[in-house]
Amino acid sequence: MLSGRLGLEKARIPHADRHGLVWLDRGRLEVEDGCLRFVTAGGGELAAGDYQIPHQAVSIILLGPGSSVTHDALRLLARHGCALAAIGQGAVRFYTAPPLMPDSSALARAQVTLWADPKTRMEVARAMYAMRFGEIVRTRDIEVLRGQEGARIKRSYQLAAERYGIPWRGRSYDRADPEAGDEANQAINHAATAMTAAASVAVAAVGAIPQLGFVHEDSGQSFVLDIADLYRHDITLDIAFGAVKEAEKSGDPLERLTRQRAAKLFRQRGVIPSMIDRIKTLLGLGAETEEIA
């Protein structure tokens, strides 16, 4: 298992300190012994050979015609924040599907408009709180709102633990060592990572801007984290504590059980379609937003 599967660590080298891009064509991009390698028989810009690619030191790899890439290679690139683009000969065409290029900028423009005005930014944050807890808040102070959110989620942890019969001694998370906590805390970390991935899909699907969050601010995935948090108090905790209970019975690895349970609940409860609908409601200032104005 790759360390850092919790997905909470940052890319090791800031992009400002990386060396731009690498051009590859007519070969296979794969992982061997934890290293990214490109194997080519030649015929393109590179001579035949087996090349080790310094993926941590470049921002993007341009993969030209006659090339293939393995799933492990994509996972390694994602972990280290290195982008991959499929291109035509000499980069005269750009074929890569992700990031999704929507056919309309309407939703992104609506997001920017709401985010840029402190008043409407706060209204969207309040709408998110109302979606999560079914409670209309009167405060228009983001710090007060975050404090109320923290108190509610602490209570949600306790209730979920009681529902599944899991001992709970409070939330404990060490960013430097995410696996240091007890099983319940580890499962929450794994479940949160899975929920963030689902939110990433939803945000990409509608063409929203990941960086412009309404509750979260500093992360390059702030809006993704905002959307993931809409499901934190119920589905995320259901995934986590349910996985701990299954691990007690089966003895199987907790991370695997958490991921399997997440995948199952995502399908059963239509999590990603629900996220897409909620994003459209929030950024369209629909009925749920207007109710708390």
Care to describe what's here?
This protein is α/β, with parallel strands linked by helices. The protein has 2 domains: 15-91, Ribosomal Protein L15, Chain: K, domain 2; 106-290, CRISPR-associated endonuclease Cas1, C-terminal domain (Four Helix Bundle (Hemerythrin (Met), subunit A), Up-down Bundle), CATH 1.20.120. The protein has helices at residues 71-79, 106-116, 118-133, 142-164, 183-206, 222-229, 232-250, 254-268, 271-283, 287-290; strands at 21-24, 27-32, 35-40, 49-52, 60-63, 68-69, 83-86. The strands form 2 sheets. Strands 4-3-2-6 form a 4-stranded mixed beta sheet. It has a 3-stranded parallel beta sheet with strand order 1-5-7, covered by helices on one side. β2 and β3 form a beta hairpin. α4 (142-164) runs parallel beside α7, α5 (183-206) crosses α6 (222-229) and α5 crosses α9. The relative contact order is 0.11. The model is unreliable at 1-11 and 285-293 (pLDDT under 50). This is CRISPR-associated endonuclease Cas1. It comes from Rhodospirillum rubrum (strain ATCC 11170 / ATH 1.1.1 / DSM 467 / LMG 4362 / NCIMB 8255 / S1). Mn(2+) binds at residues 149, 216, 229. Belongs to the CRISPR-associated endonuclease Cas1 family. GO terms for molecular function: DNA binding; DNA endonuclease activity; hydrolase activity; metal ion binding.
